[in-house]
Amino acid sequence: MLSKELPKIITPTLPGTKANAVLQKRRDYVPKGVASAYPVVIENAKGAMIQDPDGNLFLDWVGGVGVLNVGHAHPRVVETVKKQSEKYLHGMFNIVTHKGYVELAEKLSELVPVRKKDKAKVFFANSGAEVNENAVKIAKTYTGRSNIIVFSGAFHGRTLLTMSMTSKKAYAKGTGPLANGVFRADFPYSYRTPKGIGKENELEYYLEKINKIFEECAPAEEIAALVVEPLQGEGGFVPAPLPWVKAIRKICDEKGILLIADEVQTGFGRTGKMFATEYWKEVDAAPDIITIAKSIADGLPLGAVVADRKIMDSAPVGVIGGTFGGNAVACAAGLEVLKIIKDEKLVERSLEIGIRCTKEFKAWQKKYAVIGDVRGLGAMIGIEFVEDRETKKPATIFVKNLIQTCVKKGLIIESAGVYGNVIRFLAPLVITDEQLTVGLSILEEAIQELS
Question: How many helices (H) and strands (E) does the chain have?
Fold first, then answer.
């Protein structure tokens, strides 16, 4: 049974003969801008395991970059998709209403921890980038303001607007001019706070960066929203400190600005809560709008914007919408994913995995000087590698080599961070204890070899 297997490489080299033929066709017919550095072709996948056409078995610690919290091809999702596909595949929601869209919207309205006076409403699109773009549109229509504030290290997508919102401009190379009205403040990245600023002054330092925008870029009354990831993904798995979240919530309330939380990567049990913004809600700092996608439908294209009905209804007819948004098969999968997370106690499992991995990673931090920092929430953990702990010079080449060393041993991992020097842990939450043990062993062995 593939879902219970352990990693095993049986070909003399990677990729094997069959996988190499597919990768050669990829080079011939797919633009090189769709980058990949992995010698892996997926033939079958179940749980946290991937099998390639040559029979090699890989343990997947990337999970489609946070898409597969309930695992590859969960049998209940597969069965649900089959049943729905036998009824109908699609009916554009602007034309015909289908029950799945409405039922999933109702469930998410109850579950997603947005600040609301009444019931929340839900709008579906196809991806994280789409829902982030639509969240900004909704914030602008509600406030009547034209600008937004985003943060260093942010990743919000690759459409024109979200590419402008995304911090790392390697993702926008040669595509300018970018969208106007997007201003950037420093995200509270404690490990890399400039020298000379003590821990006691960090909060004030980062809040001053926001106030500088009001002074130098656009007055507060022209800012529609602050857009924040509760735990930055591409930025290096950096959690937003709760004192800072409370402070920006206060700024937003005082200035009439909406607080948007991008939970595209953090949602659906990944951080030890169903949604990471539940931590915000516990300190009375719930956001006004939350965007979700990735693990919402176990790999089918779906994303959602969730907010109080008054905010959502501010968007005029025709401003939000799309042909495929809220597709019937994707919504059916989304409803089943919610049931699986509850039935299999995957939120609790996330905490278990997180506790075990964090303990292990912090033990490694004491053993290997190349590990500078370990951080995260639940089972969303980052390990930052540095060449020197004093200077904190990013160990970018080390991480590139670490990825390739691990994949040759059957473990798929991925980098993150502004400098590409962070390894992100995003294993499916259905990973077995034995698979987790073997994966940890492979990763440490690779670190030892390269150190």
Answer: 14, 18
